[in-house]
Structures are given as structure tokens and as C-alpha cells.
Amino acid sequence: MPRTAEKVESLAREDGELLDALEAVLDVVEDEGTVEWSDVSDEMTSGQWGRLIEKGLLVDADGSGFVVDDPDGVRDALTDDEVSDAAADGDEESSWSSYDKLAGVGALGMMAGYSLPSIRNAIGGTLDVLFGPLEAMLPFYVVVMVLAMLTGLYSTLLQANLMDMDKMSEYQEQMKEIQERRKEAKERGDEEALDRIQKEQMDAMGDQMGMFKEQIRPMVWIMLLTIPVFLWMYWLLGTGQIQGQRVVLPLVGDISWQAGILGPLQAWIVWYFLCSMGFTQIIRKSLNIQTTPT
């Protein structure tokens, strides 16, 4: 794929609206030879204008405005099916599906089980069919370790498959580039550039919201699967089946499972989080899975 087409497709994957901005700029250049920000300010944001410059598709014409680099290649790319598909994929990836929204509603509904015994008993009794035999064979501290490893495994896999690390990296890189240009403009006292960059930062807030949505999306599925596990452990302790069992924790010593350690956090919750953090790190390293943008 030619270099220009690669740049255009990259923009399409990042944000389909950037293609509309590029086409608006190209139309002005084809009619007038050059383009200024004022010519297209009604058709795009300053952030989109800056993104076209950053990508090298819009270049300075020796102080007399801007021109499109390789306009024929850009026009061909804009009509290319692969670029259109990339734009559609990018829009789809950045939005929540109806299943994601249902998962969020379900997770919120299950959270009521912490305060409503009827929900807690229903979920706990149902999951006891699955986890009850495990609890009957193993000490409770081992059961917690097994559940922590299980939740750590699916949490890592969900984050790896539902979070677009490339898109999140692009968001961070864009903000870093804006901050660097703002610093340079401030050093040379360019008030006009500072005003333009300030507008870009405001526009970039929408990108920050997109990154936030990317981070939250796997969390709703993790909560949907993890809250029932927590409710089962909560329910099990409430039935008295673990009555009398104790555990020796680092820095705490011998303590009962329902004793408070950190404020309202009981020993079993602290033990779960310790196991979960440890197993999650091991799983990520073992599977070479990255869950944070670079």
C-alpha cells in the first residue's frame, strides 16, 4: 500500500470524522491552490486540523497557507474501499455494543446483592452448586486462592481482547504532542499558536472520553463475572460453614476470616485481593499480555 494511502487508512482507524476533515481540506486546495484554517474552521475542529498536520498530509506552503501532500494519492485513498472499511471498524471499536451495555446493567443489578439478602442468597445458593464441592474438599484459604486465580485469568483475557491498546496509545501520543507544541509556542511567545493549541486541547477532551470508554468497557464484563463470586464467598461466610476457621496473614497474625483488618475490609477480602494481584501479574507475564498502553 502506498505511503499516502497508509496515512489515510491510519486516520480512518483513529477517527472516521478525520476523513471528512481531510476531504474538506482537499476540496479547498483543489479550488484555490492553498488552504488556511479560516477556510475550513466551520467544517472541522482545530484538533482535527492539527492531526492532519501531524500526520504529514497537510504541509506548510512556505508561509502562504497549507497544501495537501500528494493530493492525487489522498483523493484515491478517500475513495478506496479498504479505507472506508477501516473507518467503519474504527467507529465500531470505539463504541459500546448493546451487549456491553447489558453487561453494565447486570453488574449494577448484582451489586445490590451486597445489601439485599434475597439477591445474595439467590446468587450464593446458585453458585454453591458449582463451588460447593470445591469448598468441601479444600480449606477456605485455598478456595479463595483458586477463585482469585480464576478471576485474574479471565480479567486479563477480557482486558486484552476488549481494550484497543493501539487506539489508547494514539490518544496518549496525541496529548503528548499537543503539550510539546504548546510548550514550544509558549517559549517563543506565539500567542496565536497558543490560542489554536488551546482549542485543540479542548477538542482533545473528546478523545480522552474515548480512552476512558476503552478502559471501562472490559471492567463491566469483569464486574459481571466477579461480583457473583464475591457474593458467593459473602454468602458462604454468612451460613456459618466457615465458622471457627482461622488464617495467619502477614503483619496481622492469627485472625478469623470475618475479622476487620483495614477498616470495614474483612480478612477474607484482604486475602482475596493479595492473591488476585499476585496471580494477575503472573498470568500477564506468562501469557505476555499487555493491559496498559505504551
From TrEMBL:
Record's keyword terms, sorted: Coiled coil, Membrane, Transmembrane, Transmembrane helix
One GO cellular component term noted in the UniProt record for this chain: membrane
Compartments where located: Membrane
Transmembrane segments: 139-158, 219-237, 257-275
Membrane topology field: Multi-pass membrane protein
Protein name: DUF106 domain-containing protein
Coiled coil as UniProt keyword: yes
Regions annotated as coiled coil: 168-195
InterPro entries listed in its UniProt record: EMC3/TMCO1 (IPR002809), MJ0935 (IPR038978)
Pfam short name (any one): EMC3_TMCO1
Organism: Halorientalis pallida
